[in-house]
Amino acid sequence: MKRLLLIFLATVVVSCSFDNKTGIWKDASNTPADNQIPESIENNNSNIKEEDILTKNKTFSEEKKPLNPSLISIGPPIQIINLFERYVTSTNNISNLSFSDNKVLLTKGKKLNKMSYDKAYSNRDVVFYKNNFISYDNSGTIFIYSSKLKKKIFEYNFYKKKYKKFNKKIYLIVNKNTLYAADNLGYLYALNLDNNSILWAKNYGIPFRSNLKFAESQIFLANQDNVIYSINPNNGDKNWQFPTSITFLKSDFENNFALDIVNNQLFFLNTSGELYSINYLSQNIKWVLNFKKTALAEDTELFLGQPIIFKNNNLIISTEKRILSYKAETGIKNWDLYAEPVVKPIATLDYTYIVLKNNLLLCVENFTGNVIWSKNIFRNIEKNKIKERFDMIIDFKIVNSMINIYFKNGYLLSFNPSNGISNFPYRISKNGINSKIFYLDNNMFFLDGKSRLLQYN
After folding, report:
1. Cβ atoms within 10 A of the Cβ of 349, count?
2. Are 195 and 204 in contact, with CB atoms under 8 Å apart?
3. Which end of the chain is more exposed for a tag (fewer CB within 10 A), N or C?
4. Is the dihedral of CA 316, 322, 326, 330 positive or negative?
């Protein structure tokens, strides 16, 4: 009886949409809700392969020294000028970032917004466009902060007063001179960044819950019911849509996309633990992997994981209990490792680096899945008082060929990628860190606990 009631309630919620007469958008009063019936992709279940991630096995927990540390190479640092989307690139992966590393604080701006100092908003979307920092606060105000002028040059809230108390989650991407934003009220809109004018706004009725990707004049995103949309960026109309398996249980994990632009492949990992490979030009499904048991009578399991990454025809998938590598072209498994990742891994040409919940830092060979070395990140910190200073890991990057782990209370640990040897920890912000760390034009940017933008050279 309870199951039937849940199905009935879910059907009612899915069937409901926001009325286009509510006028929630101040600048979209003439924009009707989108009632267009799109073309949909056919679901070919014959391509589905099941991967049981709940198989019991011993979780990796040992420290291991490298046999030939001199042979490990990760390639030269890459200088990033603009940040147009979450995870920087369409592959969700940057192997090695460039930073001048002078450790000079250039800017400590004024408080930018009223964003809460918590986990949810430390993971908010941020983009950089023409030296301008673009993000939002929990009331839904989009703001643009000039790093050169050291002040806000634009802010605007599209919501009426009755919606301002509703905490907003907004997903952002920039293409050319246009900012595209999707929110947890089911709205998608486009903003011209040259004149700060609204181009169009659409109401899709169900909250969006994914990062955004852009390719071949299509915007890709998904809603909380795991429906994939391809959107025309010129007017917000749907090109096509494809429903995947819905889950009634919501976790912190969000639907996640990555792209293989060379082969026109869209990879989608949904909150039900399914991984899809779709050709976004032909709209054909190449393969589907299922990382949850499908024989259960009820969907009572939460799927937890990290964003997928794509590197050299390899997909790295991080579930709650395992890290797996697949051939992107065929969906055939390369290897898997029983381990519990705490942040998104980083893939280089030959190796993948992973931080685990048991405080181990791993270097894994991409071809075989063998652990080359593993190190407890606190091994060289002998004093307990120093250990106690480290709290939640907020980011993980390779910068100037060194592995950096950033903590929410402002501390940084740095490691040699060849052997895991660490430097002495130091603090980059006394007021903590409340955003991801961004490296642009050889500078480091982040928001501190007081929502001030810090810039280091």
Report:
1. 12
2. no
3. N
4. negative
DSSP symbol at 3: H
- How far, in Å, are 118, 143, 381, 417 from residue 385 at the CA level? 24, 40, 9, 26
Q: How many residues can be counted in the chain?
A: 457
Tokens representing residue 150 in the block? 């050291």
Give the number of other CB atoms < 10 A from CB of residue 16.
10
In degrees and rounded to multiples of 5, residue 7 shows phi and psi of -65, -40
pLDDT for 398: 98
| HEC letters along 117-171 | CCHHHHCCCCEEECCEEEEECCCCEEEEEECCCCEEEEEEECECHHHHCCCCCEE
Q: Which residues pair with 222 in a beta bridge?
A: 228
Q: What is the pLDDT of residue 70?
A: 80
Per the CB < 8 A criterion, the answer to whether 303 and 273 are in contact is yes
Q: Which regions of the chain are under pLDDT 50? A: 1-39, 45-46, 53-54, 294-297
Collapsing DSSP to helix, strand or coil, 15 comes out as helix
What is the pTM for the complete model shown?
Answer: 0.86
Q: Which of 174, 125, 85 is nearest to 436 (CA)?
A: 125
Contact 261, 218 (CB under 8 A): no
For the chain, list the domains and their CATH numbers: 57-456 (2.130.10.10)
Cα 266 to chain centroid, rounded: 15
Q: Residue 425 has what DSSP assignment?
A: P
Give the C-alpha separation, 424 to 447, whole Å. Answer: 23
> Structure tokens of 310?
């794509």
How far apart are the C-alpha atoms of 85 and 129, rounded to whole Å?
A: 10
Region of residue 331 (left: phi > 0; alpha: psi -120 to 50; beta: else):
left
**Four-point Cα dihedral 125, 431, 110, 148, nearest 10:** -70
Q: Could you give the CA distance from residue 326 to residue 273 in angstroms, rounded to a whole number?
A: 15
Identity of the amino acid at 148 = K
How far apart, in whole angstroms, are the C-alpha atoms of residue 414 and residue 302?
A: 33
**What is the spatial distance between Cα 271 and Cα 291, in angstroms, rounded to a whole number?**
10
231, 219, 224: which is closest to 205 by C-alpha? Answer: 224
